Amino acid sequence: MKKITTFENKKVLVLGLAKSGIAAARLLDKLGAIVTVNDSKAFDENPAAQTLLEEGIKVICGHHPLELLDEDFALMVKNPGIRYDNPMVVRALELKIPVITEVELAYLVSEAPIIGITGTNGKTTTTTLIAAILNADGQSAKLSGNIGFPASDVASEATPDDTLVMELSSFQLMGIETFKPKIAVITNLFSAHLDYHGSQEAYEAAKWRIQEHLTKENFLILNFNQEKCKALANQTKATIVPFSTHEKVDGAYEYDGKLYFKDEFIMNSADLSLLGEHNVENALAAIAVAKLQGAKNEAIISVLTAFAGVKHRLQYLGEINGHKVYNDSKATNILATQKALSGFDNTKLWLLAGGLDRGNGFDELADDIAGLKGMIVFGQTAPKLQNLAEKLGIPVFKSENVATALKEVLARTGNGDTILLSPANASWDQYKTFEERGDLFIQTFETLKNQ
């Protein structure tokens, strides 16, 4: 860790705990800052705050008192999930207190170079693939950021011989000031998080901040399948490395069923372990980073042919009585389910879908589910999905939840059929998170498999 003195004897407010807040508070304390943590959760129900207090860090819990900001703070480190219209954040900005997120701290102390990955879809899969390839090549890559490992925790332990492979959300990128990765990746840009950002333009501007401090010595990997990403190539000082499944580009591309990097054959598309065109895109982005990092083709091939997927993201669980089963609980919107469906033969596929009703219809899913062997629907949107399936002549059955849906579909499938949980809906009608929904599905799979 770099021994910086930037925060010595400076009063810093950490707003919001969770993993990133805890990591930021501890790092700042180690760097000599006078740290105050403010979290909305009551102290007696807040084990993290209790632990930090035991470590000598001041904590204020249960509410966000605006008068706290009268204490002449030099900096606020904000939990990424806290919006900028939060009264504490608004007041801090009015007082000219800089507001950053924890990834900026990570950059300031990291001795290791950073590969930063952002985008609407595919971030986690691409991040995981990149780290796996670099490690297979004998390099030391460490996952960090939005993927579940607080960036400042990982950065404080990293050495110059390591590489931080960091997943970055738009929320995190809004709170950077000097953050500069060696290589940046934007997987794609679709509509997302408009409730937080207010507009698609603001959301995309937040993502675009990943390249804000890059120079021609740095690389920006862009998805040239998207015209909006291709247009952005002229708006950065970084060296562009494109990837595409539609055309030959001066980077990573798919042509005639083969994957290339700058016209060097890497492997056949059919040998990828992950299904769907979106995963070909993810693989190409990972190949681009790996080749820029000097990884050997053998390492790339070994990972891309064996990778089983990230948990809850088109994760292959295995077989039950000749039925292949996939868990894509992360598919919390129609677009994610459309991408998942693109990798399967509908005539042998049963789709399990449903969840929170946000008021939208599902007509745009019609072309993607046409010809399905069958559907099991559940949750608040079950009636809407059932109606669509019946219009398309798809056999459809209602079930209570993902566990009962798996049991019911197994009773109806033929040998050689595939079962895909890809809900196309958020989970909050029945589950706290998509992870909880997916974990129940996995647990049910394991139980049924061992019967």
Automatic annotation (TrEMBL):
Pathway annotation from the record: Cell wall biogenesis; peptidoglycan biosynthesis
Pfam families per record: Mur_ligase_C, Mur_ligase_M, MurD-like_N
Cell compartments where the protein resides: Cytoplasm
Domain Mur ligase central: 117-290
Catalytic activity annotation: UDP-N-acetyl-alpha-D-muramoyl-L-alanine + D-glutamate + ATP = UDP-N-acetyl-alpha-D-muramoyl-L-alanyl-D-glutamate + ADP + phosphate + H(+)
Gene3D superfamilies given in the database record: Mur ligase, C-terminal domain, Mur-like, catalytic domain, NAD(P)-binding Rossmann-like Domain
Keyword tags: ATP-binding, Cell cycle, Cell division, Cell shape, Cell wall biogenesis/degradation, Cytoplasm, Ligase, Nucleotide-binding, Peptidoglycan synthesis
InterPro entries attached to this UniProt entry: Mur-like_cat_sf, Mur_ligase_C, Mur_ligase_C_dom_sf, Mur_ligase_cen, MurD
Enzyme Commission number, as recorded: 6.3.2.9
Residue stretches spanning the membrane: none
Main localization (coarse): cytoplasm
Enzyme class at the top of the EC tree: ligase
Domain of life of the source: Bacteria
Sequence ranges assigned to domain Mur ligase C-terminal in this UniProt record: 312-424
Positions with a binding annotation for ATP: 119-125
Molecular-function GO term, any one: UDP-N-acetylmuramoylalanine-D-glutamate ligase activity
Protein purpose: Cell wall formation. Catalyzes the addition of glutamate to the nucleotide precursor UDP-N-acetylmuramoyl-L-alanine (UMA).
Similarity-based family: Belongs to the MurCDEF family.
This protein's name: UDP-N-acetylmuramoylalanine--D-glutamate ligase
